[in-house]
Amino acid sequence: MISRTGLALAVLSILPSICAAAEMVRPKAGPVQIMKSAELKRGMKGTAWTVFVGSTPEAVPVEIIGLWKNAWGPGQDVIIGKMGGQAQRTNVAGGMSGSPVYIDGKLIGAVALRLSVFSPDSICGITPIELMLEINDFDKAKPADARVPGKTQTRAGLAIPGDLLSQVVSAGATPNFQQNASTMLTPIDTPLTFSGFDPGTLQNFGPLFQQLGFTAVQGGASAALNSSKPAAGWQNALQPGDAVAGVLVSGDMGITGLGTVTYNDGKRVLAFGHPFFNLGPVEMPMSKGEVLMVLSSAFQPNKFANATEIVGMLTQDRHSGIMGRLGDEAAMIPVDINVRSFGEDNKVMKQKKLHFNVFVHQKWTPYLMMVTLYNSINGINDFAEEATYRMSGKVKMDGAPDISLSTIQSATEAPAPAAMVLAGWWGDKFNRLFLNSVQNPKLKSVNVNVDLLPDRRVAAIENAWTPTADAAAGSEIPVKVFLRPYRGERLEQNIKVKLPIGLAKGEHRILLSDADTLNRLQAQAGMANRYIDVPQTASLINQERSNNRLYVSLVESQPTVYSDDKAMPSLPGSVLNIMQGGRSATRQFITTAETAIEQASIPFDYMVSGSYSLRFTIK
């Protein structure tokens, strides 16, 4: 017979194994007990759940080292833990953000931070679950015209390469200051997975994303991401420990940010344990993920994964994590790009059609439009350094005029390649739309045609000539203008300028110019008004002249006033005095002493630059 003492010892000996078995049961969605960080003690043993391969999370032992007081902010402690098991081999990897940690079946928080680099100890920072649960307090309906938190950007100018492109170039020239091997707790890198992207695109734009705290990696995505509508079975998706992704771009190209689910109450999902972009309220598609492998590294370990299918929408992007709602659908902007390659005979040799959807956000939509356009033309065999890109696009708007865009970009002596300049020009149009101070734009669709033309097609206005310096009002003046291309014979164009019958006596001039010369003052007037709305912004963009034309204008000595999206030529002096006396600091206008009456524009398959004036006298 077994004595009472022996029985007691036997029971005590099997209790740890029973607890361990209970600990190893995979967590499920639904209510869960929590353990606050104040209850933790050094040496406690717990279990984290994260996916290493496929879609099934695996258990990882975690030993509690202690609390790092105020490490995550005033009054916000971070739990320091040491990961074992497979994590000891892989280290604390990108994509593990949000991995839930349990002690005695109680949820304590999410693996969210890493300590130093080149550390063999797999030390992690755990965001306490009580901090993450605070996100639910912000889960209110977002106002239709909410100005979401984020980096404040100035309104983009029209200069090429422009504000967005300048940020990309400066990011590429900035040393990597983020990974400095110092003993600091930093959020685990969120692998920003680019599917359908050329390595050259990641090389050019990777430094920009790295400055923002993301590691750009190549990856894949399921065809199910072609729509932002939640897939069937979303009700049972994203269990604690599963891979989860925020979707920035979906379709023929994809950009997704990968992390791990911390908690699921059946409708709302918490993940990451640190911010994604720290944008506050958002409406971003949320998808499941499938992990291919975890790259083991003491410096920059990362999960390689595919986003699989949409199951809901991220609604909050906060300091201590992200929150999403299962079954909800986030609106995206559908984009169609048609890239055509032309031969020397000006015939189409081949074309490629792309369709994808872009996340809607005042800060990120312009960047995403820029990087996707660049990738569309950079990752094809027809790409060439000396090529010329002729582009036309249409942006369909809800509540504002549709926008028609046209430009041509070619290789110049500037440090940025033509494809990058074109992408910067394109992104800045959306920058202007989304950064207006009145309302958020609503874009229904975007359609773009990009033609790749052989050789460098740039032409500068060299000079012009007219046979007479005297003319009569109502007559025509013949003009011959010469343009100098990059290589080859100069271009010659004959023009007849019609003079108005009531043109005043005295000296006048004919201006032969590029688009920038005529656009400059109108653009300055638009930027001077800090409260220009979406319809006015769309009107301004539609009024911009295209740089593949030569413009012929008759210039008179009468003042012109540019205000908002309107030009008032030949303004009487009395009216101008009244306007100058009544202008305010918030609604300024630009005045010039002359009025240029545009008479004609001549199309060229060249990027036209420069200007030339011819003076004549009305007797």
What is the typical, i.e. mean, pLDDT? Answer: 81
Radius of gyration: 31 Å
N- to C-terminal distance = 132 Å
Alpha plus pi helix count: 10
Question: Into which percent range does the helicity of residues fall?
Answer: 10-25%
Strand content: 35-45%
What's the total count of β strands? 32
Class derived from helix and strand content: alpha+beta
Shape: elongated
Uncertain parts: 1-23, 143-161, 174-182
Largest sheet: 13 strands, mixed
Which properties best describe this structure?
disordered N terminus; elongated; 13-stranded mixed sheet; 32 strands; 20% helix; 619 residues; six-stranded antiparallel barrel; alpha+beta; Ubiquitin-like (UB roll)
What does this protein look like?
The protein is 20% helix and 42% strand. The protein starts with a helix and ends with a strand. Residues 1-23, 143-161 and 174-182 have low confidence and may be disordered. The strands form 5 sheets. Strands 8, 9, 10, 11, 12, 13, 14, 15, 16, 17, 18, 19 and 20 form a 13-stranded mixed sheet that branches. Strands 1-2-3-6-5-4 form a 6-stranded antiparallel barrel. The protein has a 5-stranded mixed sheet with strand order 22-32-25-26-30. Among the domains are: 333-453, Ubiquitin-like (UB roll) (Roll); 459-618, no CATH class. By secondary structure, the protein is α+β, with helices and mostly antiparallel strands. It has 10 helices and 32 strands. Helix 4 (162-173) packs across helix 5 (199-211), helix 6 (364-378) packs antiparallel against helix 7 (418-434) and helix 7 packs antiparallel against helix 9 (534-543). The longest helix has 20 residues, at 4-23. Strand 18 and strand 19 form a beta hairpin.
